[in-house]
Amino acid sequence: MFSFIVSRILQALPVMFVVSLISFAMFAYVGDPVAIMLGQDFTEAQREALVRDLGLDQPFFVQFATFLGNAVQGEFGLSYRLSRPVAELIAERAPATLELALTAAFIALMIGVPMGVYTGLYRNSWLSRFFLTFSLVGVSLPTFLIGILLILTFSVWLGWLPSFGRGDVTRLGWWSSGFFTWSGIKALILPAITLGLFQLTLIMRLVRSEMMEVLRTDYIKFARARGLSNRAINFGHALKNTLVPVITIAGLQLGGIIAFAIVTETVFQWPGMGLLFIQSVGAADIPVMAAYLMLIALVFVTINLIVDLLYYAVDPRLRVGRGKGH
Amino acid sequence: MKALWRAAMLVAALMVGVAEARTVRWAASGDPNTMDPHSQNVGTVTMVLQQIYDALISRNPQLGLEPGLATAWRQEEPTRWRFTLRPNVRFHEGEAFTSDDVVFSITRALQPTSNFGIFVDTIDRAVAVDPLTVDIITKAPDPILPNKLASVFMMSRSWSERNNAARPQNTRQREEMFTVRNTNGTGAFRLQSREPDVRTVLARNPDWWGWQVPANNGNVTEIIFRPIASDATRVAALLSNEIDFVIDPPLQDLARLRNAQGLRVLEGPEVRTIFLAMDVARDELLYSDVRGRNPLRDIRVRRALYHAIDIQAIHRTIMRNQSVVTGTLFPEQVQGYSREEDVRLPYDQARARALLTEAGYPNGFEITLDCSNNRYINDEQICQAIVAMWARVGIRARLNAMPLGPFFAKIQRDDTSLYMLGWGVPTLDALYSFQSLLATRNGAQGDGIWNYGRYSNPQMDALIQRMKTETGEARNATIREALRLYREDVPHIPLHHQMIPWAVRGNITIPHMANNQPYFRWAVVN
Amino acid sequence: MSLLQVKNLRVEFPTRRGTLVALDDVSFDIAPGEVLGVVGESGAGKSMTGAAIIGLLEPPGRIAKGEILLEGRRIDNLPYEQMRRIRGREIGAIFQDPLTTLNPLYTIGRQLVETMTTHLPITPAEAREKAIGWLELVGIPAARERIDSYPHEFSGGMRQRVVIALALCAEPKLIVADEPTTALDVSIQAQVIAMLKTLAREKGTAMMLVTHDMGVIAETADRVAVMYAGRIAEIGPVREVVRQARHPYSQGLMGSIPPLDRRVERLQQIDGAMPRLTAIPKGCAYNPRCPKVFSRCAVERPELMDAGTTRAACWLYAEGQS
Amino acid sequence: MKAFFDSDLWWSFTRSPVTVISAIVAFICIAGAVLAPVLAPHNPFDLASLQLMDAFKPPAWSSEGDATYPLGTDDQGRDMLSAIMYGARVSLLVGFAAVIFSTLVGVTVGLLAGYLGGKVDALLMRIADIQLTFPSILVALLIDGVVRAVLPRETHSEVALFVVIFAIGISNWPQFARTVRGSTLVERNKEYVQAARVIGLSPLRIMRSHVLPNVMSPVLVIATLNLGFAILAEATLSFLGVGVPPTQPSLGTLIRIGNDFLFSGEWWITIFPGVALIVMVLSVNLLGDWLRDALNPRLR
Q1: Are A56 and A199 in a shared domain?
Q2: How many structural domains compose chain A?
Q3: Looking at residue B330, what is its pLDDT?
Q4: Fewest Cβ atoms closer than 10 Å to its Cβ: which of A290, A323, B266, D135?
Q5: Chain B interface with D: residues with Cβ < 8 Å
Q6: What is the CB neighbour count within 10 angstroms for residue B105?
Q7: Range of the domain at A257
Q8: The domain spanning residue C245 has which CATH number?
Q9: How many separate domains does chain C show?
């Protein structure tokens, strides 16, 4: 168990390195932070001094090494745009994104899995057909369009739900939560649906096809031959076996949710990391962008580790003679 | 029953409480990126700090000068101005405001890390004469010093030094500067809380000196500012009653907002002029198919480009009448404006073609037009329309539209042949525009720093130098002369002055300001 | 009275090109405690007969004609839920591949316990004790320790023993064993089949043993049915069929059976191949391959008819012919 | 051809009215896009033909409409119908090119990994795993950003289309690689392939003539389903402003522009590109879905 975790972490290190290199390289020459920081009036001398101070006159790899050294200590410097520590900015935004992503994932799983199970079991019922059509429309609608339509309907037309922001948040130490106020919950509904809908349809389709696959297996036939009840077969035997691949994909989807949050947060002006990222791209705020990408990579690596551990918990086959996984 | 009654009373009391809190929920596309008053000379910063900090000199709704923290000022000698300070003024944290704070603030604005150099560039030093008198010594006579000082906010020396903020914030420091997030002004509102990019809350400062002045009739107790970058979302928030006041509603939504129940659109001009500037310095353009010569150095070509633009069509469709078509460098609010010089070359495609043929380009030429796409009102659309209009006279322009970051970076490297720029005039004086945009770039602070077409005309330079020192009618004549030269020499193709409609909920009145700065001291919630 | 009666069973698969007849006119009985071997090449319909009996035909397959009776009661037309109560309790089943028959995510104990608690009026704790007993019976060493192991922790042979325990644990009267040893290593096939046979005998369980291993049939079965192209070609006591098959196909099938003390690995190959269900020849389905074919065979389809000690579907035994 | 109409595929196709309709719709979309230069009433790229005074004309059927502009005009006086047709052209081009790209990469890698096995297999599949970990949209953003950083802006707008194709294509190859590898592993051990090996046929030839045909149907299904995703990915990138250059507006770009007119009353600028995108992607997805069920390869 322990060595398994260690080996997984060792495998993740090169990934992290590559991501940090890319994320740094990607933005090192995009735009010119100096121009933005100087504003409307400045002299040539001021400009050069700023370039020097930011270390932008250093060779690329020197800049990268400095960046990496600091990053390991969680030190990403000051945001060019906001003149505040990047770590702090991200820490402020992270709860918003995580609450949104988790709610969206929760919606996607809580609705997507049962719908997938249902459509997998009752392939030809009209409800299944409806779900399938619904899911196809779901994967065919771009996220940003869904968001816009929801705002139009529920905010502008009906006036039920807010169109932007997080509402009132409660502070729990450094974490700010929108779960504890009515306005926070109301503000969460539309973005979470927008973000979750696409994942919901993916998960539903995935569960459905896995379910159908599992229902064809010998052990399900054998379970029927043993006269077990449908309930035991469908929800005990079939569902549990369906869960194994679903866990992997759902884990990957959570990563996808965090990435797609960029779009949702832009549409709903949700004050999370994705919005911070997009705003930073516009301002060529290199430290923030680099830190965001590294954080996302870290999140993905962590999710992968958790997925592996879950796998480990669900599938006894992995517990002995690990190595050849799935 | 009794309990029920008590509950009802409580609810009633709460409702009264709610009614008494006169809150304005205010949104704009951008968020101030600092709370330091001398760090960023940017409208989005100033529009919030304006409420918190005062300058020595204040402005009235017509942008005229009014006493602010200084009750009187006088040019004692050509290079010495004396300011008499307002007594009994206190900062939000209790410090008394004195001449020492003025000396400190001006010194601070003069620091290299300050972004407010242009407002204090002529100042040599400030001297405290007594606690309520300050002398400001300029390096050369500066007739418009009071205009400039209306943009320099006053800070407390003891507070700043105590918090290690004696200089404007500097990104070279690893640590965050105290003033990035904290304020201590003398103004009508104080900063109550701030989450960058999310929400900034200002609360009324009941002790503000200005509430004694009858003109300051505002009754707002709380301002909640929230940045909403997306145009559609901002309008949606306004329509769904989540926001009361939007300072930059998109033009295309004005009709809808005008018709919306309970909303009003306040219309008015901004002191900002949109124009096209051209590379008239290089012998060969960087981005053109013309080799061996620079067509833009030929005034006939510049005039042809000018003639080809149907500014009325842009005004009517893209700007939806929210622009003031112009033929000059700045709008009428600016000191030195001359209506006789505000004349455009007429829209005339035939004339444009003829001029091009005359200049030796009967088949036109290729050129790249650099544009921002998120800086000015409908900037990218304006450029697109101009590119299409030029196409009709044979100029094959390629549009290169960029976000403001890369855009400014590019033109500031002189890496452009043709670009669109918008220029605001915070001092409301002609010199600010001429000096930055049209003076030969010579390294002196302010001269030609935004002149990326590197227009250089000794005649113009001489006029600009005279503007710096002359006063009165002589100066106005100089400016008029410069404007005439501007019109004849076509260093720019002027387009229009922006109009800046504000959208506000019907129960709120607030004067529309041409500098695009709301002053909540004058805002009334009914 | 027979335990199981299959009467004129016909199974069809509707497809776009018409209806495929997978089983036609299949009839046989199994007496209590009797072992009926069913042999034939792949695709002959052996497994499908088993599936029809336990009521688990893969859709769109369906019983088009005929009846299946268990202790005189019709079971082919029972509603799903009633049939479910019969499966496992009255009729057990053993599948071919023990590697895929057990749910990999549950311990074998759990799978045994759930089978018993589903069918028998006992508590989980009692079921667990019984499960250990069953595991011991089928020859799992250290059953008490290994009951909480997962299927993958067992070898193939051991897993098939677990499958057998699962099939028997609710004490059904009939076991449908579909190629129970085919997937196993040759060296342990004999052990497993011997164990199965012993257990069936001890418990008095009847068995329908589907296989293509004639050796297994010869050792285990009381009677044997030879299937060809969805029909029974010949049925009779195992000795008779093995020693002196009547149907030419059976003869071909048995032709190479070595003496009982030597094992064979494969059935003897008959020239040609069994026709596909889409192209069953007119008349006797075997006629293109039959060494003794004569004119009638290509025209008219033979029913099962008495052929000495067995019954065979072959015109050779039509009256007046022999 | 006759064999095709006789096949199960054609049969199941004719049995599903939804599929037939979506095939017709998809065909119309593709034909309209491909033949846009011929069919479109205007050329939105011919700047000299734009009349700014014609901006914001409503669709032809409304009272202020103009028959020359069937679906109205945008803020620059461009004909919406033509803009959508040309936009669909860009969207489809990016979609098809990206899918072809990821198919080529994925199939090659899958064949290599499956056929060669061993360390090559382990390495290639590890790379695929790592890449699958990252959401495609982020991979595309990353690649787009890297290219933006490396190339100067002017050059960038010339290659931007290829960058988007590459970015979307490269983010989807692992799916193909995994499927093909799985099938290859199965095929490789079949007797005829073993036999071909023994005869001494070159591995390339074996893969091409024996393995490849057997993996084509799952690949076709994944490719069809991916086409919808690719078109959406392009739209999303363009919506975020990092997709195709504005000189070649795709449907995503049109939607981004239209978004500004959501509340302004010029609804046609917003609605039509969005509807076009949804209809196009939905019909492609319906086809893909049907194809998957019809070919029924056990997809993972």
Answers
A1: no
A2: 2
A3: 94
A4: A323
A5: 230-232, 235-236, 239, 250, 252-253, 255-256, 287, 310, 313-314, 316-318, 368, 380-381, 384-385, 387-389, 391-392, 398-403, 406, 410
A6: 26
A7: 87-325
A8: 3.40.50.300
A9: 1
Structural domain contains residue A80: no
User: For residue A79, is it within any domain?
Assistant: no
* Cα radius of gyration (chain D): 22
Q: Is the dihedral of CA C87, C88, C90, C96 positive or negative?
A: positive
| Residues A203 and A253 reside in one and the same domain | yes
Domain boundary among A72, A96, A125: A72
Q: Say if the Cβ atoms of A151 and B445 lie within 8 Å.
A: no
Q: Does A176 map to a domain? A: yes
pLDDT at C264: 47
Query: In the structure, what pLDDT confidence band is assigned to residue A323 with cuts at 50, 70 and 90?
Result: very low
Check CB contact under 8 Å for B231 and D259: yes
Domain match, A213 and A266 both: yes
Whether the predicted pLDDT of A272 surpasses 60 = yes
Is residue D152's pLDDT more than 80? no
User: ipTM beyond 0.85?
Assistant: no
Does residue A124 form part of some domain? yes
b/e C91-107 (16+ beta carbons within 10 angstroms → b): bbbbbbbbbbbbbbbbb
A99 & A246 share domain: yes
Question: Is residue D157 a contact partner of residue D256, using CB atoms and an 8 Å limit?
Answer: no
The span from the CA of B199 to the CA of B190, in Å, is 14
Domain range spanning residue C250? 4-90+172-282
Is C295 a domain residue?
A: no
pLDDT of res. B173: 53
Q: How many CB atoms lie within 10 A of CB A15?
A: 17
Which chains border D (3 or more CB–CB pairs < 8 Å)?
A, B
DSSP B41-73: --HHHHHHHHHH--BSEEE-TTS-EEESSEEEE
Does residue C162 form part of some domain? no
What is the pLDDT averaged over residues B205-219? 91
Residue D70: CB atoms within 10 A of its CB come to 15
The pLDDT of B246-260, averaged and rounded, is 88
Mean pLDDT confidence for A77-100: 84
- Give residue A326's pLDDT: 36
Tokens of B373: 């796409």
pLDDT at C260 over 80: no
Report the pLDDT value the prediction gives residue B445, as an integer from 0 to 100: 64
- DSSP string covering C199-247: HHHHHT-EEEEE-S-HHHHHHH-SEEEEEETTEEEEEEEHHHHHHS--S
**Same domain flag for A195 and A221:** yes
B359 at interface of A, judged by CB pairs closer than 8 A: no
**Using a CB-CB distance cutoff of 8 angstroms, which residues of chain A are in contact with residue D141?**
262
Instruction: Kindly report the nearest CA distance between residue D299 and chain A, in angstroms.
Output: 8
Question: pLDDT > 90: what percent of chain B?
Answer: 59
C221 assigned to some structural domain: yes
Mean pLDDT confidence for B100-128: 87
pLDDT above 70 for C321: no
Considering only residues C295 and B222, tell me which one the structure prediction assigns the higher pLDDT.
Answer: B222
Out of A46, A72, A98, pick the residue that ends a domain.
A72
Q: Which residue has the higher pLDDT, B107 or D267?
A: B107
Of D146, D263, D274, the CB nearest to A25: D146
Whether A293 contacts chain D with CB within 8 A: yes
Residue C16 belongs to some domain of the structure: yes
